[in-house]
Design goal:
Blueprint lengths: L1 H11 L21 H5 L4 H4 L5 H4 L11 E15 H6 L2 E22 L6 E13 L2 E8 L10 E15 L2 E5 L4 E10 L3 E9 L5 E22 L4 E8 L2 E14 L2 E7 L3 E5 L2 E11 L2 E10 L5 E2 L2 E2 L6 E10 L4 E11 L12 E12 L3 E15 L5 E16 L1
Antiparallel strand pairs: 1-2, 1-22, 2-3, 2-4, 3-5, 3-6, 4-5, 5-7, 5-8, 6-7, 7-9, 8-9, 9-10, 9-11, 10-14, 11-12, 11-13, 13-16, 14-15, 15-18, 16-17, 18-19, 19-20, 20-21, 21-22
């Protein structure tokens, strides 16, 4: 039972291996805008409508209409673990589909009387760190006599993440220069996990956990329309504290029940994040975008102690859009440094993948749909590889007032 408790805490609190958007991406901010994801997750200049407040709040000052958006994502995947497949008679680990509504946003322009400057106000809800997933693991021990032994099945369901509300203000200083700022403050700060492990003879171990947590941080951004072809953008999120305030847990096994509350605060320093990006209009219907994001893993600390032992990394993202009416087509590629390494190495490995999707104009509403496929392979001790394949589907609906 203690083993299960430790595993669940590792998956949620110090995500260094598999899932949580998936958990080696546990401290990587999630891109939620569907157009941005379809274009390689390049949100700094490619976010649509009011969703811009999540990646580059300055963009909403460039809009002339009030806008509102909402959307969801579905994630899943598979794992091939060479060590486990050799150790067990049979072994299977998958991530069944997990659904979550991960953003709602609103923005409106505001004309300043007697001034060429224009203000814009926004408000939104988003999942900043996404720790929602489903996991199913099935293993059969190798038995010397029969060839197969005890079978164990584990199912884990995790819901929640660092969900924040995002009041935003942006200003247009000229027709081509925009600045914005967003306050991100946690709301509904709980991560809920349920784990059930079933043995060959029907013995069941259940574990439930609820983590209360909070955080508050700023995002500063800018957008420059350099000319009719080139647009540049940036955002900067300073280092902030993520605090685990309380952990409630319950275990049950063969009629035995135990529960408890860990109320000692744990505070983590989340590294600063710098994002730089740009777009270039190759033709009236063809748009190219690119983006860089920092990943300062060495600055992830708890009580002044480093947590990861990783070197710093970076994310490189590229996308393309073919614009049409009413249909626009999109595709992209990304390579993101994540919190995983090869055995004996401090350099973070990269999760790489392809994205695609489309936008469809239906009058006062605009529909954005995306699909994402990504993979990562790490070399373990003794040369055994672990390969993770992830997939994601999602949608955003944009309403124009």
């Amino acid at each position: 039972m203690m083993k299960i408790k430790i595993i669940v805490m590792i998956l949620l609190v110090l995500p260094t291996y598999i899932f949580s958007q998936n958990n080696f991406l546990g401290f990587s901010p999630r891109t939620v805008d569907a157009r941005s994801i379809a274009m390689g997750k390049t949100g700094i200049v490619s976010a649509t409508g009011s969703n811009a407040i999540f990646s580059n709040p300055a963009m909403i000052a460039s809009f002339n209409k009030t806008k509102m958006q909402a959307g969801f994502r579905v994630i899943g995947g598979t794992v091939e673990d060479e060590w486990a497949e050799d150790y067990y008679y049979s072994y299977d680990l998958t991530f069944p589909p997990h659904f979550s509504i991960n953003h709602i946003s609103f923005s409106m322009p505001y004309k300043l009387s007697g001034s060429v400057a224009k203000l814009a106000l926004g408000m939104g809800y988003r999942t900043y760190f996404d720790w929602g997933y489903n996991l199913e693991e099935e293993s059969t021990d190798d038995d010397y006599y029969s060839g197969s032994g005890d079978q164990t099945t584990t199912e884990i369901s995790s819901n929640g993440g660092l969900n924040v509300i995002t009041p935003t203000i942006a200003i247009s200083l000229q027709n081509n220069l925009f600045l914005g700022i967003t306050l991100n403050r946690s709301i509904g700060g709980k991560i809920e996990t349920e784990s059930t492990t079933t043995g060959e003879y029907g013995d069941v171990v259940k574990y439930e956990e609820e983590i209360e947590h909070s955080a508050s941080f700023w995002k500063f951004s800018g957008l420059l329309k350099a000319n009719q072809y080139l647009t540049l953008g940036f955002s900067y999120t300073p280092e902030f504290e993520w605090e685990i305030e309380e952990v409630d847990w319950t275990e049950s096994y063969d009629g035995y029940n135990e529960s408890g509350t860990d109320s000692e605060d744990m505070t983590y320093d989340i590294p600063a994040l710098l994002v730089l990006g740009g777009s270039f209009q190759l033709s009236p219907k063809l748009l190219l975008v690119g983006e860089y994001q920092s990943r300062n893993f060495s600055d992830l600390k708890s009580s002044e102690y480093g947590l990861t032992g990783l070197d710093d990394g970076a994310c490189y993202r590229f996308g393309l859009e073919s614009r049409g009416y009413p249909l626009s087509l999109r595709m992209g590629y990304f390579s993101d440094a994540v919190m995983a390494t090869d055995s004996g190495d401090d350099d973070p490995v990269s999760l790489s993948g392809f994205t695609g999707g489309f936008g469809y104009d239906i009058g006062s509403m605009y529909l954005d749909v995306y699909a994402e496929y990504s993979s990562i392979t790490t070399d373990g001790y003794g040369g055994d590889d672990t390969a993770v394949i992830l997939y994601e589907l999602g949608l955003s609906v944009n309403y124009k007032f």
